[in-house]
Each structure stands twice: as structure tokens, then as C-alpha cells.
Design a protein that fits this description.
The protein has 10 helices and 11 strands. Helix 2 runs antiparallel to helix 3 (53-68). The protein is an alpha/beta fold.
Length: 320
């Protein structure tokens, strides 16, 4: 081996020696006692806070049986605990919002998924606002951000589109996010004070009525024909937007049935390293008396994701 190759080889070995411990340390060991106490904490929170008490009891009992039978014996790290127990909770509750997370990994205890600055670069997920041929306004939205700046960007985008003859809102690649932004954006299309949905706690008690807000410069939008494009990947806040405007008779939903995650989610700390993201409130639509949990938002016009925009444009041009 010549001198140059030898130096390169030694450098590579040194790099592996330096980097490898970081991969090893990525998983934090969990003793059987810690696993048991952590599981007890998760079950306690389920029984105290989950939106459906009977489901919480059922899931908690199943988790205890898994521990007692030895089925969880191979769970020996915090990361495995989060993945395994979280998957079991979702499977046996049928609730995709129910999950576990590491406090250190998420930077604290929060019901919101960890957000990175990179995700905010693209105009707070308002990716496109443009006028298509035929004077059709088109808005593409990737996420309903919590930030106040997202309200301002969304308002500006909708006002820009307000002189079009039809409006298409594309949520096919959108995820969840902030119910407050959903409420604000919907308020551009319906009269102020319209009941959008009502929240109920685990005891069936109404805790809040969510009404549409007063929005300036939005009068033209309240009568525009509106089409919402969605895919099977659409979840949570995005589904609220589609479902609410659809049930108010204000929008035609085009595409696929959405994922079906309706519950309002909070966060509860289990111990110094673990917390639960847990559905705590059940929203109820005033028109249907229910919501889209577990069933998704059914489109008015069912087409593939790829054909949804084409179908909306055909409808808009036909109605012009």
C-alpha cells in the first residue's frame, strides 16, 4: 500500500471510529422495570384523558396483557418502546392521532410535530396562488401552519384570487396542522358567525363552538364557486377544511376519500423522556351531527388524485 493510500485508509478508519459511537448512542437502553413503569404511565394517561373512555380502557388492558405475557420483552430501548407501543395503541384504538414521542427528539412536550425552518421556507406552505386560463383561481397548500404569519400569507393569497370566476384549492399533497388556520381560511368563504364545528370532551360535554370570523376584503370570495382537491393522504386539519365547506354546501370536493383523522390532539408527559400525543376532544359538524374520524371525507366527485385538477377545471369551464 503506497503512502497516499495508507493515509486515506487511516483517515477512513479514524472517521468510522469517531462517527460509530454516535450511531450506537442513538438508542437509549430501557430496563424491564423502566419499560413496565413507562407502560403504566401511558395506560394511566389513556384512562384519564383519551377522548373515548371505553376505548382507553380496552387499549390499556391489551397493553397490560402484552407486558404480562412477555410479548414486550424484546423492547429494550426508548426508541423501540415509542415505536412498538405507539403502533399497538393505534392498531387497537383505530386512531391514527394516538402516538408516543421522545421529549429530547421533539425538543419538548407538544401535540405538534417538530417543525423545521426548512419547512417554512416555501411561503408557509402556500406554494402557489395563480390565475389559470378561463379566469380560474388556483391555490396549492401543503400544510396548515400554526404561525400567525401563515394567516397573513393565506389571506393575501385568497384576496389575490378573489376576482377570478371560480376557485380551486389543491390539498392533494397537504397534511394536517392548525385548526385555527382552517377556521380563518374557511371564514373567507362563509358569512361571519357561521357555526363550523363544536368540540366535545370525553364526558360528552360541549367545550367550544367554533364560528367563522370577520375577515376584511373577502366579500367577493363568499359567492365564488369553490372546488377542493384531495387525496387519500389528506389528514386532520386539511380534512376539516374539506369536510366543513362541503357540508355547508359551499364547496365541491373532488378526488379520493381522505385518511379520517378528526380528533383534536393534546400532549401529556409520561416521565422525563416520554410523552403521549393523545386525542382529547371530539369535533361535531352541525350539519351531519358527526365527523370524519375513521371514515374520511368522501368526495362529491370521485376520481384519481392525478385527474382531480383536470376534472375541476372541466367543471369550472362548463359552468362559466
Amino acid at each position: 500500500m503506497n503512502s497516499l493510500l495508507k493515509k486515506q485508509f487511516l483517515a477512513l478508519v479514524l472517521l468510522v471510529v469517531i462517527v460509530f459511537p454516535f450511531f450506537v448512542q442513538a438508542n437509549t437502553a430501557l430496563t424491564p422495570f423502566e419499560r413496565q413503569t413507562s407502560l403504566d404511565g401511558v395506560i394511566r394517561i389513556l384512562n384519564e384523558q383519551y377522548v373515548f373512555p371505553e376505548t382507553a380502557s380496552k387499549v390499556g388492558e391489551f397493553l397490560r396483557q402484552q407486558e404480562q405475557s412477555g410479548a414486550l420483552a424484546e423492547v429494550s430501548t426508548q426508541e423501540q418502546f415509542v415505536e412498538k407501543i405507539g403502533a399497538l395503541m393505534r392498531k387497537h384504538s383505530g386512531d391514527g392521532h394516538l402516538n408516543l414521542a421522545l421529549i429530547a427528539e421533539q425538543g419538548g412536550v407538544s401535540h405538534r410535530l417538530k417543525e423545521t425552518e426548512e419547512l417554512k421556507i416555501n411561503n408557509f406552505a402556500f406554494e402557489q396562488a395563480r390565475i389559470l386560463p378561463g379566469n380560474i383561481g388556483y391555490l396549492k397548500l401543503h400544510k396548515f401552519w400554526q404561525a400567525e404569519a401563515a394567516h397573513k400569507v393565506g389571506h393575501a393569497a385568497l384576496v389575490f384570487l378573489s376576482h377570478s370566476d371560480h376557485i380551486v384549492i389543491d390539498l392533494r399533497d397537504s397534511g394536517g396542522g392548525s385548526p385555527q388556520l382552517v377556521q380563518y381560511l374557511i371564514s373567507h368563504f362563509v358569512p361571519e358567525g357561521t357555526l363550523l364545528w363544536e368540540l366535545f370532551d370525553r364526558n360528552g360535554k360541549s367545550t367550544e363552538q367554533v364560528l367563522s370570523l370577520a375577515v376584511p376584503d373577502a366579500e367577493l370570495l363568499k359567492t365564488k364557486p369553490l372546488y377542493i382537491l384531495q387525496s387519500e393522504k389528506l389528514v386532520s386539519a386539511g380534512e376539516f377544511f374539506s369536510y366543513t365547506l362541503q357540508q355547508l354546501g359551499r364547496a365541491v370536493v373532488i378526488g379520493e376519500t381522505s385518511a379520517g383523522l378528526a380528533h383534536y390532539t393534546g400532549a401529556a408527559q409520561v416521565n422525563d423522556w416520554l410523552f403521549v400525543r393523545i386525542p382529547m376532544y371530539r369535533p361535531v359538524n352541525p350539519v351531519t351531527g358527526t365527523n370524519f374520524e375513521g371514515v374520511g371525507v368522501e368526495p362529491n366527485i370521485r376520481v384519481s388524485t392525478e385527474m382531480a385538477l383536470y376534472r375541476a377545471l372541466r367543471l369550472a369551464n362548463k359552468g362559466s
